[in-house]
Design brief:
Length: 450
């Protein structure tokens, strides 16, 4: 069996025959010319070298399917991953009570099936809260880790190829929780949400929580004004004032390491307002702040070192952690692109944030509305509209051969390349076309934007 890692986490274990079955189903549905080639069957037992070759071919196959907008969003592909996740974790389908947190720590208990996917669980939570259908799409479920001070560290946004109950229980750690939060970046959409009592309450609770945890910057005078509005229970006015404050609507990440402006700098990254904000601590203890606009990122990618062995044969002591990096290529000036790398366990979540910012920008640019950005149920099947919203995170496959090196770097070192170097390049040292998320918002950049 092969271990499939998605978003840096072991998602499921599958056999070659199961993947072949998925391939044949996709071919039947979408045609042989759309589906990538599948590694061929072999009559004789595979040698260790052939086993590794097949693993690499299967990994490329899964990545190619996931990154194809039609195949990657298909119910066939996503239900395959969900079923495999449930089987791997050996959780039978049954009714359970799942606890979902709100930003203010309040718990919402919903009765769901263990086999319910993310969309179903989100709808169950919305229904329990009386959140109207047309506002459900403004919110998402996130997997978080509760820190000692009661704050939350964001692990990832739950995706359509996973079962939230299975995802959270398989971690066997009570610190991991599921939380409901708004999932858009442009604060002008707050107006839609605030039209309804429940939407207003959810937004208000999140804003209060972000201020309490220091995510939104508040000076003494603003603090006094906010306190007074809180006492009067003027929720809309409270949110309106908060919208004018620095870092409103941003997600703050745990302290991590960056190579900008120099290697090994400690940094606190926040995502919001179509940018990644850096608060960098330089070696001389000085704090420097700067922002990277998403429209000037030409592409980005997440790379990881995944533990390759299963069980005690691995040479690494204890439980080896997956090391994740997010690197993006940034237009520093008119003719200069530079790679910037962030080394953080939250790299996947950062990538998901970038992807959803770009999606939102593109929907706005095309004159679409945010309501159209979210999936709607049609005849019981899920269909995706205007936007390919889920981040196309490539699954990574472990080798079933336990004698391999315990850690394998899955990408070559990133090197700075010319502006048009990547997509037309055949050089093995350049970034492969499937390894990164090209940023379509970047295409529209003009000199005046610099």
């Amino acid at each position: 069996a092969y271990n499939i890692h998605v978003n840096g986490v072991l998602h499921c274990r599958v056999r070659y025959s199961q993947l072949l079955g998925l391939h044949e189903q996709l071919r039947k549905e979408y045609g042989a010319n759309v589906v990538p080639a599948f590694p061929p069957k072999k009559i004789f037992t595979l040698t260790p070298a052939e086993v590794e070759q097949r693993r690499e071919q299967l990994e490329k196959y899964m990545q190619a399917v996931r990154q194809d907008p039609t195949l990657g969003a298909s119910e066939t592909f996503n239900s395959f991953l969900r079923k495999a996740q449930q089987e791997t974790q050996q959780i039978p389908t049954e009714e359970v009570v799942l606890e979902v947190l709100l930003s203010n720590g309040q718990k919402v208990k919903v009765t769901i099936l263990t086999s319910d996917q993310t969309e179903d669980v989100l709808e169950a939570v919305a229904s329990k809260l009386d959140l109207p259908d047309d506002l459900v799409g403004y919110f998402s479920l996130f997997l978080v880790r509760e820190t000692k001070d009661g704050a939350f560290s964001f692990v990832r946004k739950l995706q359509e190829f996973e079962l939230p109950y299975v995802s959270v229980t398989s971690l066997h750690n009570p610190e991991f929780r599921i939380i409901l939060r708004k999932s858009y970046w442009d604060s002008s959409y707050d107006d839609d949400v605030m039209e309804h009592r429940v939407g207003l309450n959810l937004l208000y609770a999140q804003t209060v929580s972000d201020i309490e945890h220091g995510w939104i910057l508040v000076n003494k005078e603003q603090h006094r004004q906010l306190k007074s509005l809180q006492e009067k229970v003027s929720k809309k006015e409270f949110i309106r004032l908060a919208q004018t404050l620095k870092y409103y609507g941003y997600l703050k990440f745990d302290p991590c390491i960056t190579d900008f402006p120099e290697k090994g700098c400690h940094v606190v990254v926040s995502a919001g307002n179509n940018e990644l904000n850096f608060q960098v601590q330089l070696p001389n203890e000085q704090i420097k702040e700067g922002s990277f606009k998403v429209t000037r990122m030409r592409c980005w990618r997440v790379t990881s070192s995944v533990p390759m062995s299963n069980g005690p044969s691995g040479s690494s002591p204890g439980k080896s952690e997956v090391k994740l990096e997010l690197a993006f290529e940034y237009l520093m000036s008119k003719d200069r692109l530079q790679w910037v790398t962030i080394t953080s366990p939250q790299a996947i979540m950062l990538s998901i944030c970038l992807q959803s910012m770009v999606d939102e920008l593109m929907v706005k640019k095309s004159g679409g509305s945010i309501r159209k950005m979210f999936r709607r149920r049609l005849n019981g099947a899920l269909r995706r509209s205007d936007s390919q919203q889920a981040v196309k995170s490539p699954p990574l496959l472990d080798s079933p051969d336990a004698s391999r090196e315990p850690m394998a770097k899955l990408s070559s070192k990133l090197t700075s390349v010319s502006l048009r170097g990547i997509s037309h390049s055949s050089s093995a040292n350049d970034v492969g076309a499937n390894d990164f998320h090209g940023n379509y918002a970047f295409e529209g950049i003009g000199d005046e934007d610099l």
